[in-house]
Write a structure and sequence with these properties.
The complex is a heterodimer. Chain A is mainly β. Helix content of chain A is about 0%, strand content about 50%. Classes of the chains: A mainly beta, B mainly beta.
Amino acid sequence: DAMVIQNPRYQVTQFGKPVTLSCSQTLNHNVMYWYQQKSSQAPKLLFHYYDKDFNNEADTPDNFQSRRPNTSFCFLDIRSPGLGDAAMYLCATSRDLPGLETQYFGPGTRLLVL
Amino acid sequence: GENVEQHPSTLSVQEGDSAVIKCTYSDSASNYFPWYKQELGKRPQLIIDIRSNVGEKKDQRIAVTLNKTAKHFSLHITETQPEDSAVYFCAASPSYNQGGKLIFGQGTELSVKP
């Protein structure tokens, strides 16, 4: 369970103040995902990396960016958080894309925007 | 693209009874169908999955059935216990060469009453 790690677990930021969430994995998985999950809703995929290849979902706002400097780490940058960005942010990894390999979720970072 | 519908949205059962959650999908090319359990404030955890070359899979009290012709799959939990109370998400994934990613259903909140 500790193989997909997210920091911090809780993050409070101010409206418009950039924030970065981090995810690390010890599984050496090729694929890393970022999901946004709001209360009582299913996780919503923002983007994913297959190795260094970045794949953005069509409806992901430009306010959300991601970086994957190496296999183990992936970051979610929210450039100007709005009140509507308050949510749980889940990182997930898989050895290969779904359909071929299982996807595992990290514990999540709960973001509060004041 | 793929669309997954999940029913019911809430389900309440007595301890010891069975619970059934149903999902339908639209993309006949989908070939991987996981089920995730998410307890309040925690990460989604994979509880069982099935691939399109299999009609049924069982793991202790949990089973999943897949009907590819009708494009639906179901989660069956027998002898329910209070610790089964959680939100359950089904998902479907198109094949790898179609940019495979998980498409989630809307979730079912299962409540098991002692």
